[in-house]
Amino acid sequence: MTERLEDIAAKMVADAKGILAADESTSTIKKRFDSINLESTEEARRDYREMLFRADDAMKNYISGVILYEETLFQKAADGTPLAELIKAAGSIPGIKVDTGAKPQTFFPGETITEGLDGLGDRFKKYYEAGARFAKWRGVIAIADGLPTWGSIKANSQALARYAALAQANGIVPIVEPEVLMDGAPGTHSIDTCAEVTEWVLRTVFQDLYDARVSLEGMILKPNMVIDGKNARKASVEEVAAKTVKVLKATVPSAVPGIAFLSGGQSSEEATAHLSAMNAGYDLPWGLTYSYGRALQADALEAWGGKKENVAAGQRAFTHRAKMNSLAAAGKWTKEQEKAA
Ligand code: 13P
Predict the structure, then answer these.
(1) Residue 97, number of CB atoms within 10 A of its CB
(2) What is the pLDDT of residues 54-77, one digit of tens each?
(3) Residue 265's CB: how many other CB atoms inside 10 A?
(4) 10 Å Cβ neighbour count for 122?
(5) Family, per the entry (predicted)?
(6) What is the tally of structural domains in the chain?
(7) What letter would DSSP give residue 300?
(8) Measured between alpha carbons, how far is 146 from 177 in angstroms, rounded to an integer?
(9) pLDDT tens per residue across span 226-236
(10) Quick check: CB of 262 below 6 Å from ligand 1?
(11) What CATH number is attached to the domain comprising 326?
C-alpha cells in the first residue's frame, strides 16, 4: 500500500518531534568543518552524519525526519548499512534536499533564483526508491536597500510551486522553504520590515501553490521567523513570537498540517526560546515545530571536533539540543531545563 502524503506530513510534525536539517551541500559542510579544522572528505562527512543518526535517544524521541543531501541518501555507514536505513530503524523518515542551489538571478542584482527543476521528476523516482518520503527546496529572499523585488519573489515562488507539484506527483511530501534572510548583507533591517516582507512572500507562495494545484494537506511549510536582521538584533522573545504568529496566521491556510522553522543564524538557545514562546502563548491551527540545521548541530559539531573518541560527547550534545527543541515544540521549554543538563 502506498503511504498517503497527508499521513507522512502529519507524522513529520506530530508528538512534539521535529526535523533535523542535515542537508548541507558539499560547500556548506566544508564551511562547518573548517570551524573545527577538519578536512571535508567523503569519509569525514559520513562519520559526522553517522554519529548523528546513531544517537538513538535523540532520533527515536525527538526527530521525526532528517533532510539529507544527495550524497548522504546513497551513502553507507562504516559497517555497510545504508545511512537512510539507520534513520528508518529509529522510526524517523529520510528526506532529501532537491534544489541545486540559489544562483544569481539575471537582471536582478543582489538577488538569487533557486535552480534544479529540469529533470526533477526523474530524480524524484530515484530518491523515492532510496527511501526518501519528503523533500526540501529553498528559495532565498534578501532584504536590502530596494530589495526584495517583486520579480525575484515571484520567480522563486513559482519555482517552489512547480517543485511542490512534482514532489507530490511522485509520492513525496514537499517542504516548501521560502527563506527571508536574517543574516544577509547588510542585515540591519528592523523586525517590522521582516514582517512586511515575510507576509508578502508567503501570500505569493500560497497563491502560486494554489495555481499549481498543490495539495496543502500534503505539504509542510518551512519559513523564517519574523525577526530583526543579524546586525540589528534587539527584539525580545515575546516580540518575535507575537509577530511571527501574526504573519503566519494571516497567510498560512489551516489546511497545512505543519510549519517547521529554519533557524537561519539564530543562536541555538534563541531558536529554542522563540519556538517555545509561540507554542506556549498562542492557539495555533497547525503543528509548529523545528527543522533546524545549525541550531540543532552546532553544539554537536563542536563537541565531536572530528575525533572518534568524542562520538559519545557529540551524540550527547545533539540529544540535549533535540530534547530542548522538543520541549519547545510542546511549549514547555524553560531556561532552567537548559541548565539542568
Ligand atoms: P538552518 O536552521 O541552519 O537555517 O538550516 C535550515 C535549513 O535547512 C536551511 O535550508
Answers:
(1) 25
(2) 999 999 999 999 999 999 999 999
(3) 18
(4) 11
(5) Belongs to the class I fructose-bisphosphate aldolase family.
(6) 1
(7) H
(8) 23
(9) 999 999 999 99
(10) yes
(11) 3.20.20.70
